[in-house]
Structure formats: structure tokens, C-alpha cells
Amino acid sequence: RGNRYYSPQGPTLGLETVSVSGGLSVSGYEFQILDSGGDVVFREGGSSRIPARFTWKGSNDLSEGYYRARVVMDRGGRRVISPEFEFYLDQSGTRPSLSVSSSTFTPDSDFIDDELTMETSFSGPVPVEDWTLSLVIVSESHPELKEVFMAFEGKGLLPSSILWDGTGYQGRELESYETIVPVLSIRNEAGVIRTYEGSTITTGVVLRPIKEGGVELVARFPNRNYFDEEGVINSRGEEVVAAVLSRIDRHQRYFLRVECHSAIAGREEENLERTEEMAYTIFQEFQGNYWPLDRMTYMGAGETEAIYEARGTFENYRNDRMEFRLEDDNFVVKDK
């Protein structure tokens, strides 16, 4: 007895000797593996006593399909053949597939495009042993970034659909204009792992309360090369400003604060000055664009208000950001 599914790419095939009529003592034996046509593709002989366990490591050039294992014994001049154990040799693996209900969503609890459905499927004759669906944040401005933001996993049956509200590990939330790659990985009962990378998902302008249950709102944009080398907003950054204006246009009773933050280690004064200049170029983009200038301001915070204290790739990516804050007048102190 043993696993009914086997692959040379997975663990060695192990078969246990359950019982043999007449006992395990023999004059000689031969352990054989036969293909579907009855040809012996492997044989291993011995004498005196049949072992309690046989192992086999097949080669990668064997054809996929059903094989049989048996023991041919010599006992008292008689040739005895054990019952055959049939198993499936898998070379191609169980192939996953994945599609998403939308390429863009904005998980900010406003009941509009807050959730995403991922449809999953697989093909192949070997059942699924376990599976993992990973949601990986990437950024073209940070090629080294491959942050597994969230993952779903299970054993056995793969669900046909998985619903995601954008929440990650430790309750982390997605921010605006982030890129997520869904990756579905399946290991089947033969031990073969196959992976499928789905189409990228991007978030829109994610506008959520600064504090849970509060009325003040914020949209954060991790920096994706929104500024040129001089710290002036470029065409990509201008697209963000246009998108933000479209999203917050109905909130003009709020006071708008534009902020820039840095993840670059260095002198505090230099970082503050740099981010102040960046925030000012954004502020200039708003002039004459349907937002009262007496109801907005800008600020550069350098690296003094980091979201994450750690200095990892993901933390730096998130700390280096633009923020658009909608503040209630009751919380704004105006200069007289």
C-alpha cells in the first residue's frame, strides 16, 4: 500500500508490504514497476526475506499515466506474484487558473467597489493536496518590492471563488494607486507544485477616515515616481491630482491639507525642505481647479511622521508618500 499518486518531481514513492501468504521468508524476490502496457520499467531483486517497505524514484523521462507495482517471489521452487498496486505517475502537475471580477477596486468602506471576487479553478487528473492564493504588492518604482500583503490557503478542495475586502495581515489596509498581483499556487497529491500569476489589480483613490468612526478623511499615495529629480510633480503626479479632485469634489465643506512624507534617511532639515517643496508643487496644481484656495494648505513632514518605524523595503515604500487630508473646520486652527 502507498500513495495512489506519484511524481518524480515530488517525494520518493514508498510502498509498504501489508501481508504475504506464507510469510516474508523466500528464496528470492524481485520488486517490479510496470507501465500501462505491461513492460517492466524498474526491477530490484533480493533474497532471504521480503523487506517491509519498497521505495522507488522514477525518472523524469517516464510517460505520464498509470503504473503498477508488484513483487515476484520464489518460494520453494514456485513463482508467486503478489497482488498489483496501481498508482498514477504525474509529470505535468495540477494546473491552476485564476481570474478577477475587476482590475480596479477601492476598499474604503463607501459601499462602492469595496470588494473583489477571485474565481479559481484547476485541471488535471491528480487531486489537490493544498493551495495558497497570495496577494502580492509590487511597484515599478521599487523593483525589489514583492510584499505578500495577504494570503488565503487551505487543504483539499479549492474553492471556486474567494472574496477579498482589501484587508491584509495584521489588519493592514490597501492605499491609493497600489498594484497587487494575485498568485495561485497548487500542490497536488503527487507532490507537484504549479503556480499561476493572474492579471494585476490596482486600487483607485482610497479615501477613508483618519480615525475609525471619525469624520476626517485621508487618501494616501505611496510614491510611484510622481516627482522629477528636482522634486517637481510630473505628468504621472498630475494624473493623481486630477483623480483626487474628481473623488473629493463633493467634500468641499472640508479643509484640504496636502502633505508629502519621506522615507529617505538624512538630515532632518533637508528632508523637511525637500518634502515642503514637493507639497508646494502639488498645491500649485490645485490653483484654479475647483477648490477654494482659502480652504487648503500644504505641508512637508520629511520623515518625522512615518507610518512604519521599521526600515524594510515595504515600510520605506509606504512611508515615502503623498497624503490628501480632508479636515473638519472644527479641528483646524486658522491663523488670524
Question: Can you put this structure into words, describing what you see?
Answer:
It is a single chain. This protein is mostly beta strands and 336 residues long. The chain contains 3 helices and 22 strands. Strands 1, 3, 4, 6, 7 and 8 form a 6-stranded mixed beta sheet that branches. A hairpin with a 7-residue loop joins strand 18 and strand 19. The relative contact order is 0.12.
Quick structural summary:
With 336 residues, this protein is mainly beta.
Descriptive labels:
six-stranded mixed beta sheet, 12% helix, disordered C terminus, 22 strands, 336 residues, single chain, mainly beta, 3 helices
**Class inferred from helices and paired strands:** mainly beta
Taking the alpha carbons of the first and last residues, their distance comes to 86 Å
Radius of gyration: 31 Å
Shape: elongated
Question: On the 0-100 scale, what is the average pLDDT?
Answer: 88
What level of helicity do the residues show?
10-25%
Number of strands: 22
Beta strand %: 35-45%
Write the layout of secondary structure elements.
Elements: E1 5-6, E2 13-16, E3 25-34, E4 40-49, E5 53-56, E6 65-75, E7 78-81, E8 85-89, E9 95-100, E10 104-105, E11 116-123, E12 128-139, E13 142-155, E14 161-164, E15 179-188, E16 193-197, E17 201-203, E18 208-209, E19 217-222, H1 235-248, E20 255-261, H2 268-286, E21 296-302, H3 313-319, E22 321-327
Parallel strand pairs: 1-8, 10-17, 20-21
Antiparallel strand pairs: 2-5, 3-4, 3-6, 6-7, 6-8, 9-11, 11-14, 12-13, 12-15, 15-16, 15-17, 18-19, 19-22, 20-22
